């Protein structure tokens, strides 16, 4: 049994703060949990806080991109917050620029982004 | 395959990679060594990320294996080496496997090619039916 990352609800937003070194199964479980919680709660936004995350490899990077795409289809916007500079540098060099994922430097800015509907990017064709 | 290549420094650790949990242990061990070697934060992050990709490859594509890691010295430089070894199916087309975006599994196809970009030294020995050995090193600047 692998541990699960808690998904918290604050108003219209689901908040996930990743605090442990994630093993792959935990990453997949989180993706499923988030999709289910979006539908169950009707949340309009998801914030994934990776402030404490020391590395994002291609597996976790793919989860972030997939989660953003899944939640968009379920009518929720995802913002990834708190990425460390070294993680950003490494991700780009790895070949993952996470083009479809919105980011904010801090949790506060991420929540702010979700609170302003006009800040949503136009839907991709 | 040229067989196991001993690390230049006898002081190294070996762990088996047989579960997702071992992938986490592998990157934590590499991180500890990278810190001991005083790699910069960005270089630590790059090396640990490369180790994570390669440990996952060992598990998923190699069917499990081992990682040997330790500090190495060349001239006046110090670095961290990690060697990943499996007895899996091997890689039939190495050029293809090192191409961005190509995967024989369900991944993004960035593991091997991305790991190579993230380290200073990268060597790969593979033989179909015998297994694969990937060695990476990051040097302190």
From TrEMBL, chain A:
Pfam families: STAS. Residues 3-114 form the STAS domain. This is STAS domain-containing protein.
Automatic annotation (TrEMBL), chain B:
One of its GO terms (molecular function) is protein serine/threonine kinase activity. It holds the Pfam family HATPase_c. SUPFAM superfamilies: ATPase domain of HSP90 chaperone/DNA topoisomerase II/histidine kinase (SSF55874). Keywords: Kinase, Serine/threonine-protein kinase, Transferase. Residues 43-137 form the Histidine kinase/HSP90-like ATPase domain. The keyword Disulfide bond does not apply. InterPro entries: HATPase_C_sf, HATPase_dom. The keyword Isomerase does not apply. It comes from the Bacteria. This is Anti-sigma regulatory factor, serine/threonine protein kinase.
């Amino acid at each position: 049994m692998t541990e699960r990352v808690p998904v918290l609800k604050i108003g219209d937003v689901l908040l996930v703060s990743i605090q442990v070194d994630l093993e792959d199964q935990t990453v997949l479980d989180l993706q499923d949990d988030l999709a289910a919680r979006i539908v169950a709660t009707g949340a309009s936004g998801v914030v994934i806080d990776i402030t404490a995350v020391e590395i994002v490899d291609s597996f976790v990077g793919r989860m972030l991109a997939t989660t953003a795409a899944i939640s968009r289809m379920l009518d929720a916007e995802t913002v990834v917050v708190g990425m460390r500079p070294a993680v950003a540098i490494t991700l780009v060099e790895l070949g993952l620029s996470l083009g479809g994922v919105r980011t904010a430097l801090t949790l506060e800015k991420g929540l702010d982004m979700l609170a302003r509907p006009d800040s949503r990017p136009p839907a991709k064709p | 395959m040229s067989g196991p290549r001993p690390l230049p420094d006898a002081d190294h650790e070996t762990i088996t990679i047989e579960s997702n949990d071992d992938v986490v242990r592998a990157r934590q061990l590499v991180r500890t060594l990278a810190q001991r070697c005083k790699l910069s934060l960005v270089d630590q992050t790059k090396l640990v990320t490369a180790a994570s990709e390669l440990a996952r490859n060992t598990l998923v594509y190699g069917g499990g294996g081992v990682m040997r890691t330790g500090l190495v010295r060349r001239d006046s430089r110090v670095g961290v080496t990690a060697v990943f070894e499996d007895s899996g199916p091997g890689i039939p087309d190495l050029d293809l496997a090192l191409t961005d975006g190509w995967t024989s599994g369900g991944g993004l196809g960035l593991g091997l090619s991305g790991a190579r970009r993230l380290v200073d030294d990268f060597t790969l020995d593979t033989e179909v039916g015998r297994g694969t050995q990937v060695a990476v090193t990051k040097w302190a600047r």
